[in-house]
Amino acid sequence: MRDNVPCELPAGYDGTAILDRLAQVLDPELDESILDLGFVRSLQLRSGHASVALRLPTSWCAVNFAYLMAEDIRRELLMVEGVRRVTIRLGDHCAAEEIEAAVNDGRPFSEAFPGEGAGSLAALRLTFLRKGFLGRQQRLLRELREAGCSPAVICALRLGEVSVQDDTILIRQPGCAPVKGGAAEILQRYLERLAELGLDCSLAAPLIVDLEGEALSVERLLVHYETARTIRVAMEANGSFCRALLSLHRLDAAGPSGHANTGGKDVQS
Amino acid sequence: MYNHDGHDLFVIDGHMHFWDANPENWRNKYGESWIKCFYAYHSSLSPADAVWSFDKFCRYGEEALVDDLFRSGYVDMGILNSTYLHEFYKNGFNSHAQNNVVKAKYPDRFLLCGSFDPREEEAGVDPFRRMVAEYPISGLKLYTAEWRNGSRGWRLNDPWAYKYLSLAQELGIKNVHVHKGPTVYPLSADAFDVHDVDYAATDFPELSFIVEHVGLPRLDDFCWIAAQESNVYAGLSVAMAFVHLRPRYFAEIMANLLFWLGPDKLCFGSDYAIWSPKWLIEKFMAFELPEDLKQEYHVDLTFDIKRKILGENTARLYGIDIPAQTAKLSQDGIGLAR
Question: Is A230 in contact with B260 (Cβ distance < 8 A)?
Fold first, then answer.
């Protein structure tokens, strides 16, 4: 997806750093990168001023989540060397003006939208980081199970006993033959979120923990897995809507000849 | 009636509308945004040959409805999910009074939902009683995200909501459909939170709560509540629409619902006219749960379970005797013309 983002950069400027930063920004509800989701319409950098134009799936995408993404983009890009100012544009989003005015100025959501939504945006972000943690963990558990690990083995695993070899997860437990299996990316995404939530990432720490960082017993593992599985499917619900609606948006932009459903290909699963 | 290998399946569309979104009925820009948002859902998830023009979508009228449901859409009965939205539409979007126009012509084909808004407090009590007395109301459709005088929504466990639920129960109402689904601009997402259903379901064990759109995208919260509360049911509209473009995702939703709720609490709904029952039912009947999900969740979606979902579960909720109702329907204007 990142190769498809039209970039206008100063001559000789390597845009990798900026794109890497943008790739870090997630749609919190979907737990997927905004670059992979195709939300970034264009990127421009001129004399230290980065401008990012977004294209959200619909003009009514939830205002609080749109705000979170815009705010994250600004924070990420300001960390790139040579970027001193960031402007985000939300296109035809229903609250584009208010979000742009607040985010580009570094003002908080509560100030831009007094009375909108219960609870703070920070709490909302944490809720979705935690849901995303369980979703990522469920994918990892599935890979470990497919690789032949028993529940007892899974519950006993320490961080130091898993590593990555040739894009595959490698498990070495003392006294056992090494086990290989599962996509490395799934392990990496899980470990990233483990760290983001401030959970124990030392080599001796248990690999599979609950949201409080407690290791799971074999008895608890099954129920925990069934719960995490449903959370993952729930998170993908909005992704499914977004992809379907985004394909419509693209066709609208392509002109009146594009029929709404002829572009159904990229929403086919 | 859907016929599969010589077996008849009685179909109740648990969620459909007879709306008026003509531009003349738009009160403000929200009336326009609302129907455009619906239209985006319609055109992005329907098969190409089932996509309507925007004009038809705004006001399709009675003939189209009767055709799409009963003549070509396999539906035997439809539940009119009245939705008022008086702040967006001058005459309301599809109030019980509007919906009753079509119900009056085909009385045995429709079940009519009324509603209440607890923010009306005492002033709404007499009108609510009158509505139940004057219209053939057999259920309620509650829209917790509806705007009213600056409020962006209410909760089922608000004290006045409890008073109205008690009153409804006293007046003989048993089924309560609650909209908990995807964000629709310009409504506030927080008002679609599903946790209030938990309180109301516990405190009103005699009522059945059908959570429309299974809380999507809050499917997880919905599943925990429905697994605990025996009187919470899944209304499948919106989830159904994924069967066409995203069958794998549809399969995962169904596997989760079957796992947490079992096959007796899932109720078909099309959300007509957002989507049409004809293609939803054809694709649903042709759909099979993938083998890996059957094994992973230890569930299946057999022919008998599909029959429950399409009609038997809702018939049980509304006390409909399927053979008797089938005989009756064969004698109405639609049935006789078959």
Answer: yes
One CATH from 3.20.20.140, 3.40.30.10, 3.90.640.10, 3.40.50.300 for B2-327: 3.20.20.140
Our CA-based measurement puts residue A269 at a distance from the nearest CA of chain B, in whole angstroms, of 5
Q: Which residue has the tokens 């990142």?
A: A2
Nearest residue on chain A to B185, judged by CA atoms? A60
Query: Can you tell me the distance from the alpha carbon of B292 to that of A178, in angstroms, rounded to the nearest whole number?
Result: 27
Across residues A228-237, what is the average pLDDT? 89
Q: What percent of chain B has pLDDT over 90?
A: 86
Report the amino acid identity of residue B320: I
Question: Residue B8 pairs with which residues in a beta bridge?
Answer: B3
In whole angstroms, give the CA distance from residue B258 to residue B256: 5
List the single best residue of B41, B246, B295 to mutate versus A (max A Cβ within 10 A): B246
Per-residue confidence band for B216, with pLDDT thresholds at 50, 70 and 90: confident
In whole angstroms, what is the distance from residue A94 CA to residue B40 CA? 15
Does the reported pTM lie above 0.95?
Answer: no
Find chain A residues with C-beta within 8 A of B33's C-beta: 60, 94
Hey, where are the domains in chain B? 2-327
Render A8-34 in DSSP notation, one character per residue: E--TT--THHHHHHHHH-EETTTTEET
CA B317 to CA B193: how far, in whole Å? 24
- Long-range CB pairs of B26-32 (<8 Å, 24+ gap) are B26/B88, B26/B89, B26/B90, B27/B86, B27/B87, B27/B88, B27/B89, B27/B90, B28/B87, B28/B88, B30/B87, B30/B88, B30/B186, B31/B85, B31/B88, B31/B89
Contact criterion met (CB < 8 Å) for B256 and A229: yes
